[in-house]
Specification:
Family: Belongs to the FAD-dependent oxidoreductase family.
Low-confidence stretches: none
InterPro entries: FAD/NAD-bd_sf, FAD/NAD-binding_dom
Radius of gyration: 23 Å
Mean pLDDT: 91
Domain FAD/NAD(P)-binding: 9-326
Pfam family, one: Pyr_redox_2
Oligomer: single chain
Number of helices: 12
Strand content: 15-25%
CATH architecture of the largest domain: 3-Layer(bba) Sandwich
Number of strands: 23
CATH topology of the largest domain: FAD/NAD(P)-binding domain
Keywords: FAD, Flavoprotein, Oxidoreductase
Bound molecules: flavin-adenine dinucleotide
Number of domains: 2
Strand order of the largest sheet: 5-6-2-1-10-20
Largest sheet: 6 strands, mixed
Helix content: 25-40%
Amino acid sequence: MTTGIVSKNILIVGGAFGGLSALKSIINNITKNQTAYSSALSNKNILKLNLDITVLEPRNGFINILGIPLALLDLKHANESYFEYNQKTLNLPINNTLNISDSIIIKINHIKDRCHRLYSDHAITSSNQVLNFDYCSVSTGRTRNWPLDPKGLTRLQFVDEMGQSLKKIKSANSVVVIGGGALGVEVAGEIKQHYPDKSVKLIHPHANILKEPKLPKEFAEKSTEILQNVIGKENTLLNTRVLDEIKKGNNKNDGLITLITNNPEHKEIKADLVYWCNSHKNNIDYLKFENSPFLGSLNQFDQVRINNDCSIKGFEDKIFAAGDITDLDFVKSAGGAMHCGGISGDNISNVIFSEFNAQNLPKSFITLPGAHMSVTFGNKSVITCTGEGEILFNAPRALMKYTDYCNKLVSKKLDLGLDSRL
Ligand SMILES: Cc1cc2nc3c(=O)[nH]c(=O)nc-3n(C[C@H](O)[C@H](O)[C@H](O)COP(=O)(O)OP(=O)(O)OC[C@H]3O[C@@H](n4cnc5c(N)ncnc54)[C@H](O)[C@@H]3O)c2cc1C
């Protein structure tokens, strides 16, 4: 008996590293296996499968967030870091159909909105639209302080925001960056590289910057030394915590700022501009609300608990998660988000056709002794820790990658059209 036409809905929440990788891998996997998948359909007496993939993402495009430290200072780079969701850039028909074969037709939609609530088979957007799904992948990343987490949704708004930030940097004589993680170090390094005459201080509560349990001690020590060379030893305030921030005048964004610290030698630090690079929050409010079915799938750090196949615990074979919001025990990275997103997409397409084995995260992902990580001090100096724990300074490949903060690399990995960005 022929079942006829079957429709399936896939919802992708968050359209950046994890989300776009999931989207691309669904399409690539189905395209690559179209013959096998088509016969899997015919074995089930299905004549035609209509696959509706909806990307729920408030932005008009994808921002390569890695390059924010440079985008704050270089508007051309900001512009180049924004990849609009259109056919030319995504190399996929957006809000249009893609005929994979006579029996498989895919439609990709972009809904420019936020996920407000997620349930086991539908989502509710911020504007109360109900989106039913059969399968879902979530990769909503983290929120940081402005301007490190841009608010603008369009390219124009994003570049404008970076422009506002640049204006503030230009008019400031002294800048203080709080937090010696990768973000703080890159912001401080870039500002100093662009404006060597400005005073740039970095305040960090520990004895060394870039202290990560998965990174060797030597990485943190060497990085501290490099930062001290770049911004000055006297401007690298270690073992120092900011207790309060007092702003002069009514307009909280302008004027002289006094930072009160616990360091007896630097009790008060004056600055024209302060960047708080010390905190982030996982974007999981849409999973964490009263009576949410996902409460048991979140851990105490507001991370989404996932299985090796990137499905969310308790929602196996149906809802997947990738990227910064997951509970994977490694330094969160764009590469990690793309890898998990890819696995989520592969597994969603595998589940739909129910013919193939699930893909799992490679063991090395979790068990590598070190974390692969590169951090710049201004994009002309880069420190790298390889997965094997080797520490390299200014390795040619890393230097090349960071001349554009991985714009080319990311566009290659996500198969995005580079030249259509502008
Ligand atoms: C300044 C900076 C520099 C970095 N440098 C590096 C680096 O050099 N190398 C590296 O590997 N990693 C780096 N990282 C980390 C890397 O950027 C993250 O690990 C990566 O972005 C995670 O990808 P993701 O898809 O999980 O989330 P994100 O890239 O944060 O994307 C999340 C997406 O979800 C959307 N979203 C959020 N909430 C909702 C909602 N409720 N509904 C719908 N959509 C939503 C957002 O708009 C966004 O587009 C850096 C991070 C920052 C901030």
